[in-house]
Design brief:
The protein is built from 13 helices and eleven strands. The chain is an alpha/beta fold and 334 residues long. The strands form three sheets. The chain has a five-stranded mixed beta sheet. α2 (56-62) links the parallel β1 and β2. α2 crosses α10 (245-264) and α4 (100-108) packs across α12. The N and C termini lie far apart (78 Å).
């Protein structure tokens, strides 16, 4: 009887040891398989410029959203603002955020690029751009702009066309003004020296200018048109889109995730961007972003109409479907 019990105990011990060994091997195999799958996961890199600009690619990167993603930015250094879309067209970069009219003009010229996410929008609290003069300037409104010199970051975009329309609407002839370009974060220099009379500045740099006692703000683009012109979307080269549609889809999802976080944590977002650009958090003005990142038709149509009015396009030269797509956005319903 005792021997029989002993045999049962021994058998139970052997079964327990065998089970442990099997389990251990299973865990090892599972771990090995997981590591292999991770190693085999291909990460698609997209070439992207580094600008002094309130950009969600930078914010998403700082938040770690690209860490385990299948798509990731590869920074290629600084590019002049006016060369961002030409660089996208040439293939030097794969993705860009630049104002809608520049993208439309490129497409009208035959460029294979497309807007795929709405990017930022202009709001009363966080406008797309602001107009500044020196504190001692006698310029009080747009009606005083005649014969003056305006500083802007580049031609062919919001700074130029929104301003020209506002001038015309207020009886000021745009041809009497001069325009000078300078990097976004250096607009204060020619303004303070008197080389320009007005400077148009975007976030985050506009916050530094607004806080300085040497300058005063006149108005913003929100005051001009209620934000209809302020969408600054993300565009992708046709080649990259064709080769990596899933990467563009995942990037869109990351932009949506970042948009929601930014809009829910504005002060934390400002602090992150301030650190990136080495400015005070109080001086880092931000953008509010479209949370669903769906490109609104009216925001694109506005710029088609404006470019036709500026004789940069002929009526019907480009169609909406040539300019943007929402196909890669999970929020899109056909």
């Amino acid at each position: 009887m005792v021997d029989k019990k002993l045999k049962v105990v021994v058998m139970l011990v052997i079964m327990a040891i065998f089970g442990t060994l099997i389990s251990g091997c299973g865990n090892k195999n599972t771990a090995t398989q997981g590591q292999q799958e991770k190693a085999e996961k291909k990460v698609v890199e997209f070439n992207y410029p580094e600008l002094v600009y309130y950009d969600y690619i930078y914010l998403a990167d700082e938040l770690g959203y690209f860490k385990d993603a299948g798509v990731r930015p590869k920074y290629v250094g600084k590019i002049a603002t006016g060369q961002v879309i030409p660089s996208l067209v040439s293939g030097s970069i794969d993705v860009a955020t630049r104002h809608t009219p520049v993208v439309i003009a490129a497409i009208a010229s035959g460029a294979d690029v497309k807007i795929f996410a709405a990017g930022s929008k202009s709001t009363k609290q966080w406008p797309h751009m602001k107009y500044f003069v020196r504190a001692d300037s006698d310029i009080k409104s747009v009606k005083d702009f005649g014969g003056k010199t305006i500083g802007l970051n580049s031609f062919g975009a919001c700074s130029e066309y929104v301003t020209k329309k506002y001038l015309k609407d207020n009886g000021v002839d745009p041809t009497t003004l001069s325009f000078k370009t300078a990097p976004e974060d250096q607009q204060e220099i020619p303004l303070s020296k008197g080389n320009t009379d007005i400077a148009i500045i975007h976030p985050p740099t506009s916050g530094r200018t607004a806080e300085s006692p040497n300058f005063k703000m006149l108005f913003s683009d929100w005051d001009i048109d209620g934000g209809i012109s302020g969408m600054c979307p993300y565009s992708v080269s046709g080649k990259f889109l064709k080769e990596h549609p899933e990467a563009v889809k995942e990037l869109t999802e990351i932009l949506i995730k970042t948009s929601k976080w930014n809009n829910e944590h504005p002060e934390e977002a400002r602090a992150i961007m301030a650190k990136r650009f080495n400015i005070k958090p109080s001086q880092a003005e931000m953008y509010e972003f479209y949370e669903d990142q769906l490109v609104p038709e009216k925001g694109v149509q506005y710029w088609i109409d404006r470019l036709v009015e500026e004789n940069k396009l002929s009526a019907g030269q480009v169609k909406l479907e040539q300019i943007y797509t929402n196909e890669y956005n999970p929020n899109y319903k056909k």
